[in-house]
Amino acid sequence: MALPSALNAAFSKIPKRAESRGESELRDTFEDSGVASALDVIDHQIIYGRRGTGKTHALRYLASTRIDEGDVGVYVDLRTVGSAEGIFDGEQIGPIERTGRLLVDLLNQFHDEILQAALEDNQLVGDALFVTRLDGLLSAIGSIRVDGPVELTTDVEKERSTHDGGRVELDIVRPKVAVAASSDTSESQKDRAVVTRRGVERVSLNFSDVARALRELADSLSARRVWIILDEWTSVPWDVQPYLGAFLVRCVLPLQQFTVKIAAIEQQINFRTKLPNGQIIGIELGADMSANLSLDDFMVFEQEESRARNFFQGLLFKHLTAGAEEDRQVPGLSKETDLISLGFTDSRAFDELVRAAEGVPRDAINIVSKAAWRASDRRISTPDVRTAARQWFQTDKEGALRGEPVAQSLLNWIIDNVIREKKARGFLVNQKDQDEAPLKALFDARVLHLVRRGYSAQDTPGERYDVYVIDYGAYVDLINTKNAPKGSLPVDDGDDGYVEVPTQDLRPLRRAVLDLREFTASLESESAL
After folding, report:
1. How many CA within 13 A on the CB side of residue 60?
2. pLDDT of 292-309, one tens digit each?
3. How far is C-alpha 514 from the geometric centre of its chain's CA atoms?
4. Which residue from 252, 305, 313, 258 is spatially nearest to 283, judged by alpha carbons?
5. Beta bridge partners of 344
6. In Å, how far from its chain's centre is CA 482?
7. What is the pTM (predicted TM-score) of this model?
């Protein structure tokens, strides 16, 4: 097999995850889809986005830019916070204790990040008040209590000592005999009380103490703003999430100099819950934090082909050129337009890559990497892209569904009913069904893509629908066959009528509606056989 070309080798070496990049490279490789300005506000925000849409890259870019502006940016990957017992041992340890352990780790990491920022800032490291306040935070998060019985033991020690003595005198000059005797006795008593606690050590956090320590620390930072960026929220156990949210609501969100950003997968969050006593705890969306930012919405490029092409062209160019040493630079790759002329057989092959990515940066990087390996010393062609997209779909997306048999059945049912029967790649789902578990599993696995919310059809007044399209990898094998999709959504005004994602409501799209009750009925009939 021939050696790969310099550009194809470079495509294959692009890091697939933002965590693999250094801070300077992260900034240089960030391609803004419009999300940077939406994030660069002091409001508390929750950022939604499925895996691969660029949440980590965007948030680390935000932290970096805030530090450059003189603020304090603290980025925390919540996957690295907490102990194994607190995360996995849910049956043995209650959510309150598990949250306490996680909070101690989180606050210690926050303390370390602030300390690191101070060591790099001559003004802060020489500020005695700041150092004192930072120590105060450490004291506030170090409390431990022992839950269990208390035993009080009192020991009494007594001491008694006696000293006896005698004396005899004999005088031979003057006959005389003298006898003397003496006896000394002393007593002492010591009481010693010993308190013994038997039980389990537990973390004890006083929210008021922690809040006070954070507030005083913020005051010592003068006009600097502290940006706390919490990534991978959904890695926190489901039952612990509301308690972690309650801590933020009570201790952090009220502080004027703090801004909190949380990155999460929308279908895997549990920000708020009701306790057995009726009390509601956690983050109230809209009131405590806004949740109006979804990277999936920024990545929707349906009907905006030129914008999609420009975005992925810039994304790949930056990943290939940022931080590359002179001897590792691709010859001739000096501007973005060179990417297509040097790396692809024609613009149609690159457009096929953009179409296959479905607006997801990680999918684009993985597909182009596989296509480059397949092309070897050739430029990447459309067949290379299609084969790579199918391979990526099978290994990554179908692989993620192996533990979801119902979701797999739903995917096969959708392919039969939408692609093969209606020759379409998109469909509508009533918003009443948006929380169905199999549908959410397909969306999380990036097998389905939500391209519009709240569509209102002409023939179903009062009903709202979400518009989904099926991933390119699911139907790429059908391209150039009789079952190939002819458009996104089938319309009702003609057997061969199709429309792309509608920009306006009131189109007659009854044929495009997918009724999940029919799928449930089909499952029940199969199980009855």
Report:
1. 22
2. 788 887 776 655 778 889
3. 31
4. 252
5. 380
6. 42
7. 0.81
